[in-house]
From TrEMBL:
Keyword set, alphabetical order: Metal-binding, Nucleus, Zinc, Zinc-finger
Subcellular location: Nucleus
Main localisation: nucleus
GO cellular component terms, semicolon-separated: nucleus
Source species, domain of life: Eukaryota
Tagged with keyword Flavoprotein: no
Residue span(s) of domain HAT C-terminal dimerisation: 167-243
Molecular function terms, GO-annotated: protein dimerization activity; zinc ion binding
Name this polypeptide is given: Zinc finger bed domain-containing protein 4-like protein
InterPro entries with a match to the protein in the record: HATC_C_dom, RNaseH-like_sf, ZnF_BED_domain_contain
Length: 249
């Protein structure tokens, strides 16, 4: 004999000062125990007893393993779909490293973390090299009186490059800041300790992580171009949107 599944429904309410409990239904479940199917079965039970959904304060269930498992799998699938490879995004990874509230503590993929750290090191070194080359004078002579001086400068630059690498290691090995702190304010306090990283932090932390500002822009444009102002030129619309985005300060 095959086993059958049933859904039991009880109701609980207060009559004066006395709690009352009643058994409403025991419904046979003839399909897979999905969240939607169980919800529909409950609604049918409520309809049979003319119980309005607005009068139901809460629904308490036992450990519905299949339903919970289905919800969990669905959430994991959607999260992996959208954020599964987020650590491999160079800009996001470096911005996370340069956020003193997080640094590298939340990376799950060690390869992605190491890749981001190396990329940040390369950016810092490249920036130092570009700054140094701009200050050097290019000379093309047969005999260079300052050759020895240039060799000493080159040695100093190599030491400085190693120092920048140590700067990143020192920064990552330090404790993270309070979660509610402002990362830009924290970097203002650290800019003399980590000058090279400070410059990169200003560059990466300015990036917006969402398209919401642009969506708000279109929403504001739609509010401005209403039926009574539908003949506004694009030039005037642009000016109105710009002015509406300015702060009172």
């Amino acid at each position: 004999m095959s086993e059958k599944s049933f859904l039991g429904v009880t109701i609980h309410y207060i009559d004066g000062i006395k709690p009352v409990a009643c058994n409403l239904a025991v419904r046979e479940l003839k399909s897979n125990h999905t969240a939607q199917y169980i919800a529909d079965s409950l609604k049918e039970s409520f309809t049979d007893w003319n119980i309005e959904l607005t009068k139901i304060r809460a629904i308490v269930t036992d450990n519905v393993t299949d339903t919970m498992k289905e919800v969990q799998q669905s959430l994991q699938k959607e999260l992996n779909k959208r954020f599964g490879l987020i650590e491999m995004n160079t800009h996001i990874a470096i911005a996370t490293l340069l956020d003193p509230r997080f640094k590298n503590i939340h990376f799950r993929d060690l390869h992605a973390c190491g890749r981001a750290i190396q990329k940040l090191k390369d950016i810092v070194k490249s920036d130092i090299a570009a700054t140094s080359s701009e200050s050097d004078e290019e000379q093309s002579v047969l005999y260079d009186f300052w050759q020895h001086h240039k060799e000493l400068v080159h040695t100093k630059k190599k030491r400085k490059s190693n120092k920048e690498s140590d700067e990143l290691s020192l920064y990552l090995s330090g404790p993270v800041c309070n979660f509610k702190s402002n990362p830009l304010e924290e970097w203002e306090d650290m800019k003399y300790v980590f000058p090279s990283l400070y410059k990169q932090a200003r560059s990466f932390l300015v990036m917006v992580a969402s398209s919401v500002p642009c969506e708000r822009l279109f929403s504001k444009a739609g509010a401005i171009v209403c039926k009574t102002r539908n003949r506004l030129s694009s030039k005037h619309l642009q000016k109105l949107i710009f002015l509406s985005g300015l702060s009172e300060k």
